[in-house]
Amino acid sequence: MSDVCGKYMYDKFNEIAEDTRRMFMKCKSVGLASHEDIEKVLNELQSTMKTYHQYQSESKQAEQKLSFILQQVAKIKSVKKQKAMAKRVEKRQRKYTETKVKAFKARNDYLMTIESVNAALQKYCSDDVPDLIDCMNFGFHTSISKCIQMFLSAQDNIRRGRQITIETLNRAIADLDTVVDKQKYLEYFETTFTIPKKIKFEPHKGDEVSTVNAQVLIRDEMQSRFIQMQNRLAGLKTENDE
Questions:
Q1: For residue 15, what is the domain's CATH number?
Q2: Could you tell me if 66 and 97 are in contact, meaning their C-beta atoms sit under 8 angstroms apart?
Q3: Given Cys at both, which of 110, 117, 163, 212 links 48, Cβ 3.0 to 4.6 Å?
Q4: In a domain? residue 78
Q5: Is 44 part of a structural domain of the chain?
Q6: Is the pTM of this model over 0.85?
């Protein structure tokens, strides 16, 4: 378990951290480029808006001046004075037309720039930002999941190993049998513990008696020795049983 946590998981987490850092730097660079593009179109929008308002003001002023001079001409009764005012009217009319055209173009530019900016902002918020987040998260959750699965697998192997050990010990406890072990021990050392051949009486030359003979002269002594031997055998049997 120490190898799994101290080596494999440690190395894997370091690798994930390095990959995440590298991916973050890439995504940050792309994000900054997107911000610069947004800033450009916003600056363009600000410029077209100023131009639009400027040309609209100039157009309104030219219109007011033209209207004013037309009112003045309408009040003049003299044909000569009207002819003299005609050049001024023409000049005001030309100025008004020029400013009106500029204002019209400026309004169109302003409206189209607004559409462009809105489209850029929509794309950035709906597409670019989610894509950047996906790129930053690419493989992160899978790698973390595999590391955790590695840890859980190691824990499961340890658990199975412990369970096998417990089962083995339980079987060993159940298999403990003094009688069987004794028999196997005796069988293994058969040559050592094999019952030797019975010792036979080897008579002296000319002695043909091969059984215990309790003659009257030694009967009491034999009886006493017999009792001692019985007691000794009983004691040995008791010791053996214990």
A1: 1.10.287.620
A2: no
A3: 110
A4: yes
A5: yes
A6: no
The predicted pLDDT at position 209 comes to 67
- What type of residue sits at position 228? Q
Q: Tell me the CA end-to-end span of the chain in Å, nearest whole number.
A: 49
pLDDT in tens, 186-220: 888 887 877 777 777 777 777 666 676 655 556 66
Structural domain contains residue 119? yes
Q: Report yes or no on 200 lying in a domain.
A: no
Would the pLDDT of 17 be above 80? Answer: yes
DSSP code string of the chain: -HHIIIIIIHHHHHHHHHHHHHHHHHHHHHHHHHHHHHHHHHHHHHHHHHHHHHHHHHHHHHHHHHHHHHHHHHH---HHHHHHHHHHHHHHHHHHHHHHHHHHHHHHHHHHHHHHHHHHHHHIIIIIHHHHHHHHHTTHHHHHHHHHHHHHHHHHHHHHHHHHHHHHHHHHHHH--HHHHHHHHHHHTHHHHSPPPPPPP-PPTT----S----TTTHHHHHHHHHHHHHHHHHHHHHHH-
| Domain housing 69 | 2-138
Percentage of the chain beyond pLDDT 90 is: 20
Q: What pLDDT was estimated at residue 214?
A: 56
Number of domains comprising the chain: 1
Contact of 55 with 103, CB cutoff 8 Å? yes
Count of alpha carbons within 13 angstroms of residue 63, beta-carbon side: 10
